[in-house]
Amino acid sequence: MTPSEQIEEYILRHIEPEGEYLHRLWRATNIHLLRGRMASGHLQGRVLKMLVQMIRPQRILEVGTFSGYSAICMAEGLEDGGRVYTFEINDEQEDFTRPWIEGSAVADKITFIIGDAIEEAPRLGILFDMTFIDGDKRTYIPTYEMALKVTRRGGFILADNTLWDGHVVDPAYSHDAQTQGIESFNDYVAHDDRVEQVILPLRDGLTIMRVR
């Protein structure tokens, strides 16, 4: 076990437990889906829940549901009356994800929508308090621009995978479309005075932005 793996194991032993349902979802995601690592997992899931408890949003937009892990974690942090609206563009994902969301203890706080969030989220007519971007890395900039239109002033936009396994500083990946998407997004946000921003080296990189 590497030192970084030892540190991660230590952290997981000293934070809020993942919970039996989320653990089963994590295992099922990695067994039955390609790229199971895309699910947020224990540490990031607890961070998302804590951020929701700190920000206290009533309406959350998520772009990229995947297996539903992060949506459930954020819903766990919501106060009564709060709701997560989560969009998944890949309709083949629905048969796996919908039963897990609907079987969770927070199902009444999650609206799961199959469709393109860039086009369909604004049509909901909702001003969100928090947006979590975790979809196609190649479309992070247009997703971000959409998020700015539907997230209230003083609200928060989070973007996942913004360090992309370190590929953003590895020239070997400079021609990879997903890496290019993340690099372009990071550069774009760094020079955008509409938000305050910080990148946390959590897991695969998590950027937190506050809308000015």
Strand order across the biggest sheet? 3-2-1-4-5-7-6
Count of alpha/pi helices: 8
Distance between the termini: 43 Å
Q: Please write the string of helix (H) and strand (E) elements.
A: HHHEHEHEHEHEHEE
Description:
The chain has 212 residues and is an alpha/beta fold. It has eight helices and seven strands, in the order αααβαβαβαβαβαββ. The chain has helices at residues 3-13, 20-32, 41-55, 69-77, 94-102, 117-120, 140-150, 177-190, and strands at residues 59-63, 83-88, 110-114, 128-133, 151-160, 195-200, 206-211. The chain has a seven-stranded mixed β-sheet, with helices on both faces. Helix 3 packs parallel to helix 4 (69-77). The chain is globular. The termini are far apart.
Please outline what is shown here.
The protein has 212 residues and is an alpha/beta fold.
Summarize the helices and strands and which ones pair or pack:
Elements: H1 3-13, H2 20-32, H3 41-55, E1 59-63, H4 69-77, E2 83-88, H5 94-102, E3 110-114, H6 117-120, E4 128-133, H7 140-150, E5 151-160, H8 177-190, E6 195-200, E7 206-211
Parallel strand pairs: 1-2, 1-4, 2-3, 4-5
Antiparallel strand pairs: 5-7, 6-7
Helix pairs in contact: 3-4
